[in-house]
Design goal:
alpha/beta; 12 helices; 41% helix; single chain; eight-stranded mixed sheet; Rossmann fold; globular; 260 residues
């Protein structure tokens, strides 16, 4: 049975979209058939990380939300460009949101029918033969995000060691509990090297009451990459890549995710 993983953060700038892209790629490389939806319609960017060329894009997730296409028409097979066609790897499909300013302004002003989007997930899974659907969500708490979270099997909340993030994440965890999301995890990202990452991990986990998968450091190589490629593919032997792989293994193991 295919699974839905939502990746969320209370504020922007946590590295959520980069993490979504890298985790989706690792799942595909392990043999799964994966689709990644960029539902951050106000500030889309996953297509840049995965290298989807602009001239390939004929339909977007935004077009589906406006009723201009079917959901599967906005899916682009990234297998060849990411080297997933060899070595028994799975598949990775990307459903990008529009970068058109008029489209962004309209969807921000009017919102969208998230129930219609959710209702098409099963059809998308069937048409693409998916094992995993990864949703890169819009930061913050809003109706669309909450309704999408409600149909997810696993929720990963990306957090920075910042007081505002702590406060917002605590509220989001309460919402996830009320929505009865089966598995909920946290991930600290961009932790300054002067901080003790183990202490950060233990403190947040103790206060929030949910499993913290890792506390990832703020790496200069990731910052310099500038979202122009997948970090785990560009730097496969980097310590950060190894840690992201460990996060992926824990996420996709099907275990844990309950309050501690």
């Amino acid at each position: 049975m295919s699974q839905i993983l939502s990746i969320h953060s209370y504020r922007g700038g946590t590295g959520k979209s980069n993490m979504s892209a890298n985790l989706a790629y690792l799942a595909a490389r392990s043999g799964q058939r994966v689709a990644l939806l960029d539902t951050d319609v106000a500030s889309p960017g996953v297509h840049l990380v995965l290298g989807l060329e602009k001239n390939r894009i004929t339909h977007t997730l935004t077009d589906f939300l406006f009723g201009r296409c079917d959901l599967e028409e906005a899916a682009y097979d990234m297998g060849a460009s990411l080297g997933l066609d060899a070595n028994g790897a799975g598949a990775l499909f990307l459903l990008p949101s529009s970068m058109n300013i008029e489209a962004i302004s309209k969807v921000v002003a009017d919102g969208y029918d998230v129930s219609r989007l959710n209702s098409q997930f099963d059809a998308l899974k069937k048409s693409l033969g998916l094992d995993l659907l990864v949703i890169d969500s819009h930061p913050g708490l809003n109706r669309e995000t909450m309704l999408t979270t409600a149909v997810s099997d696993t929720l990963l909340i990306v957090i920075r060691p910042d007081r505002q993030d702590y406060h917002g994440t605590a509220v989001m965890l309460q919402v996830a509990s009320r929505l009865q999301v089966p598995r909920v995890f946290m991930l600290a990202n961009k932790v300054p090297r002067r901080l003790d990452r183990n202490a950060v991990r233990e403190r947040i986990q103790s206060v929030m009451g949910y499993e913290m998968l890792a506390a990832l450091p703020l790496e200069e190589e990731m910052a310099c990459l500038g979202s122009e490629a997948l970090f785990v593919q560009r730097f496969p032997d980097h310590a950060l890549s190894l840690q992201i792989r460990e996060v992926a293994e824990r996420l996709f193991s099907g275990e844990g995710g309950q309050p501690l």
